[in-house]
Amino acid sequence: MSDSKVELGEPVAAAPPPAPAPTPAVPGNPTPGGMFAFAGTTLLMVMYNLNAGGVTTPNVLVGMLIFAGGSTLTLVALLEFIRGNTLFATAFMTFSTFWLSYGAVLSPAFGVFEAFANNPEQIGKALGLYLFMYFITITMLLIAVIGKSKLFTVLLSFASSGVLLLACGQYTGNNSVSIVGNSFLLVVVAEAYYIGLAALLMSEPNPVVKLPLF
User: Fold this and answer.
1) CA 16 centroid distance within chain
2) What are the CA-CA distances from residue 77 to residues 27, 29, 166, 168, 191 (Å)?
3) Phi-psi map region of 53: left, alpha, beta (phi>0 left; psi -120 to 50 alpha)
4) Which letter does DSSP use for residue 60 in this model?
5) What pLDDT is stored for residue 181 in this prediction?
6) Cβ of 40: how many Cβ atoms within 10 Å?
7) Could you say which DSSP state residue 112 is in?
8) pLDDT at residue 176 in the model
9) How many whole angstroms separate alpha carbon 105 and alpha carbon 148?
């Protein structure tokens, strides 16, 4: 037994305070980047569809479709799944598959248009059916978002209507219908940029301005 002992009246050293709990890491918000990539890709596609500047060769659009619209939205979708945002994740994943597949259709490496060399009249109908399938998918997203966000409800309403008009225009060969569909998509672009900026400002401390999300 040790001979050391505490004398009466002798102060006892206080125990050191417990170390503070580590501050949990807060993940960033991937939504702004996803909305900007979606808006930029859609805008470039619409400009190409309307032959802006007389450009008809889609090589630049293919790069945008694969990397900005496809790869970026796939990453954003995965991050939204991690954050538990199933609806946003599904929406971003859906549009990423659309951009990647559409990039494959336009890329000469996949030989899609070359496959119709003997039947060129079938290209429009094939693209029309392809777009109609995505009209159905976007409509499913619209049903899921109704009552949760007015902005996204309007965005997906214009997106589904625009894609349906593009599908009809391609299938029937009616360019006027396709022009109206592209006009609808310009509204989608404006809304997507707005939502992306509003979400970005909301994610940062002391933003210069705040934009409402509703």
Assistant:
1) 51
2) 14, 11, 25, 29, 19
3) left
4) H
5) 97
6) 18
7) T
8) 96
9) 34
Residues 6 or more apart in contact with residue 26 via CB below 8 angstroms: none
State which H helix or E strand residue 81 sits in.
helix 73-83
CB proximity list for 132: less than 8 A, separation 6 or greater: 164, 167, 171
Provide the pLDDT for residue 92: 97
214, 195 Cβ separation under 8 angstroms: no
Euclidean distance between CA atoms 169 and 46, whole angstroms: 14
pLDDT in the model for residue 6: 46
**DSSP string of 163-196?**
HHHHHHHHHHT-HHHHHHHHHHHHHHHHHHHHHH
Using alpha carbons, list the distances in angstroms from residue 199 to 81, 133, 196.
Answer: 18, 30, 5
9 φ/ψ sector (left φ>0, alpha ψ -120 to 50, else beta): left
Residue 203: other Cβ atoms inside 10 A? 13
Residue 129 identity: L
Q: Which residues of the chain have pLDDT under 70?
A: 1-16, 19-26
- Looking at residue 208, the DSSP 8-state letter turns out to be S
Residue holding tokens 């976007």? 138
* Contact partners, residue 7, CB within 8 Å, separation at least 6: none
Give the count of beta carbons closer than 10 Å to the beta carbon of residue 19.
6
Whether the model clears a pTM of 0.90, i.e. scores above it, the answer is no
Task: Give the span between the Cα atoms of 89 and 5, in whole angstroms.
Answer: 66
